[in-house]
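[Q] Does anyone have a clean structure-token version of this?
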Amino acid sequence: MKRFLSGAFLLAFTLSVLLPLLWALMSSVKPGSEILGQPWALPSVLRFDNYGRAWGEAGIGRAFLNSLMVTVGTLIVLLPIGAMAAYVLAKYAFRGAKALLATFLGGMMFPHFLVIVPLFLLMRDLRMLDTVYGLIVVYIAYSLSFTVFVLVGFFVNLPDELAEAAMLDGCGHAATFWKVMLPLARPGLIVVGIFDAIGLWNEYGLALVLLPSEANQTLPVGIARLTMTQQYQSDWGALFAGLVIVMLPVLVVYSFFREKIHETMLAGAVKG
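[A] Here you go.
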């Protein structure tokens, strides 16, 4: 009976996740009249031109490229900086290490909307407002706490003997980190990179305030504006096509790395 209830619960959870995705995918290739008149019926005609209108006329293509630049640019800088900070905090004993780690962790407690006004003024004074690189700098600062928090746990579990052996072979502190310890922490880098990428890809509040022009808007802001626009134009097919464009990269990334995520999570549970 217990196994039956567990299976039923997992089946219900799976359907609650898959059915909305399948419905959005089906609606993205339906005419607008069928979306409203027959929302649960299969499309009578496949309207792939919905994606063309969403990508070009609605500006989703430009927003997609902006989000891609912001996400990739942030990860390129964030992961090395976060890994170096986490390694020092995990493997080096110095005065104030615990206070510094607590400071990083404290950054995860404050929602960004609490400082959005002074942040807007600061970015304006630095002439970084409404720029992609300005948003990248802000994202790095806001994602650093979570990145350090996760990677500290991975570096703590790495044997100190490996670093000592590398130093006996002539490696300095930097070479030991880059050539020995960082490659061993690659599973942690992959996991934290995926979670950071998903969070950055879907971030809305900071992008809305710091990128006011339509030319620089990211995908979440573009979808919000598309939603408001389509309420008047009644082009619901293009709206659902835009939603699929937003979801598809996240699903592809997770599908590609899901085995590595599961292995890493299982390893962490066993070590714990």
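[Q] Thanks! Anything notable?
[A] Residues 268-272 have pLDDT under 50 and may be disordered.
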